[in-house]
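Re: weekly structure request thread

Next one in the queue (265 aa):
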Amino acid sequence: MKHIQIFNDHFQNYKQYGIPKAQLIIADIPYNVGKNAYGSNPQWYIDGDNANGESEYANSTFFDTDLDFRIPEFLAFCTRMMGPEPKERGKAPCMIVFCAFDQQWTLIEEAKKHGLNNYINLVFRKNFSAQVLKANMRIVGNCEYAVLLYREKLPKFNNRGNMVFNCLDWPRDLGVERVHPTQKPISLLELFIDLFTDPGEVVIDPCCGSGSTILAARNLNRRAYGFEIKKNFFAEANRLLEQPSQPSMFAPPVEKKIHKQEALL
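Done, posted below.
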């Protein structure tokens, strides 16, 4: 089987693909915001101006699957596909779930039913906000949220002596093509993949959307598998995968080979 692959299928149909178990699972699940997906966003109006009337995005959801996402089934899949708890310390697998603020406790409590008894909450601080239409009315949101879930042993942690905080700045993928409304920065995903896996290990994204997780894993020489049920996003993700791999700031430096003649100089 390929080391990098996205399947145009629901993650519940994973058995037929025979993918290996993961050291790290990353998922950006539907936030279930319903028809207010573009609320407070200029895209609600034509050309971002309310004088032009409402756009096609007004009173719409990001995806038609938003209201049918089942967290228990999602976590059941994830716990089956996470690697086993090792005897050694410092090698355990984990998962990271990007979610809405009010989904955090649902995930934490439901995860315990599936043996994921421990968590670390993650907060990402942006230097911008999509809630432009509310800027002169109230405090606007500029944070994203995620939950790191694991069983009992602390996950593998390649911090290289650096302290890693649970509140991180949200990088902007300047120059990266956006093909998905909730696309996550590749550099942020590379940070987590580098932190919790080693080269050659497996990363799985059950809701891979634009394929950013898979791209980030490929950049770092990991094996990666994703599931995406929407044909248009599946096609876009595969198109991006066909482009050359981009160098990552987390990739190990390439050692310069010195010829014997040079060494003698």
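DSSP finds six helices and eight strands in the chain. The two ends are 48 Å apart (CA to CA).
Next request, please.
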